[in-house]
Amino acid sequence: MLEVAGLTTSFPGESGEAARIPVVDGSDLEIAGGEVLALVGESGCGKSMTALSIMRLVPKPGRIVSGSVRLEGRDLLEFSVSAMRQVRGGEISMIFQEPMTSLNPVTRVGDQVVEAIRLHEPVSRSAALERCLELFVQVGIPDPQARLRAFPHELSGGLKQRVMIAMALSTRPSILIADEPTTALDVTIQAQIIRLLRDLQRELGMSILLITHDLAIVNEMADRVAVMYAGRIVESGSRLDVLARPRHPYTQGLLRSMPALAPPDERLPEIPGVVPPPGQWPDGCRFATRCSIQVEECRRCVPEMVAVADGHLAGCHLVETGQEPGGEA
Known about the structure:
Elements: E1 2-13, E2 16-31, E3 36-40, H1 47-54, E4 63-71, E5 74-75, H2 81-87, E6 92-95, H3 99-102, H4 109-120, H5 125-138, H6 144-147, H7 157-169, E7 175-179, H8 187-204, E8 207-212, H9 215-221, E9 224-229, E10 232-238, H10 239-244, H11 249-256, H12 296-300, E11 306-309, E12 312-314, H13 317-320
Parallel strand pairs: 3-8, 3-9, 6-7, 7-8
Antiparallel strand pairs: 1-2, 1-4, 4-5, 9-10, 10-12, 11-12
C-alpha cells in the first residue's frame, strides 16, 4: 500500500543552504493493506517529521532531498501541488499530535468536517452535513446533533480528538497516519481513543501508521513495528519479533524501561543520555554514545540493516557478526 525508501529530509544549518542538516536520514518503511505499522522511538528521533514528509507537509525551510514515497506504486514526491492536495486528506489522512490546537477555534466543528468532505467530494452542503453526523455517531461522540454546532473550546480534549478522527475518516482514506493520537489526554480517554482507532481500523480495513513512544499501545494495536533513532530505522519486524525478541540494544533499552516489565519496588532501568540533536549525530552507529555494549567498530562504521529472522531486520554491528547484542527484554 505504502512504501517509503531512502527518505531524507533536511533543514539549513547555521551557515545556510551550504550545510543542510538531515532530520530524517535514509528511512525505509512499508505498510501493507489493512495493516497497522507502529513507528516508535523517543522524542527527537524524527518520527513526526517522517509523517510530515510522507504527507509533503514539511515546514519551510525544510525540504525532502532524496528518496521516494510510493502509494500503490505512485511516487508522491513527483506529484504536483494540486495533485498532492487531492491525495492528502483523500487517500491518506492524518491525525495530528495536539487535538487542543488542531481545530480552528472560531469555526463550529461540524462546519470544519463539512468543509473537509466538500474539498474532496462533489456533494451538497446538506449531504456533507448528513455524512458528518454519521461520522460523529461512528466515532462515538455523544449527542452528535448538538455537537455539530459546538465550537472547539466547548469540547473536552477527548471529544476534540474524536472530531479530528471523524475529519480524518470523512473521505474514506486507505491510509491513516496517527501521530501520537493520545497526547495530552488523560489515561482513561487515551484507552478510549486507542480502542476506537483499533475498532475503526478493523471495521474499515484501512492501513494505519501509528506514531507513538508508548509501547503498551504498540502491543495492543500494531501488526508490525519500526524503531527509529536519530533519524534512522534501527529495527523492524512483526510486533512479536520486535517486542519479544528485540535485537537492537536501543529497542532492548526501550523495553526494559517499561514499568510493566520492571520488578516491583525497583528503580526502572534507563538508557543513559539523550537523543543527540540533528547536526550532532555521531559517526558510525548513532546509538553508540549511549550503548553499554559498543565496540570500536560501532564508533567508526554505520551498521547495515540485516535480517535476523524472516521479516525481522536490525542495524547493529554485533548482529552483523552473528553475535547477540543483548538478552531478551
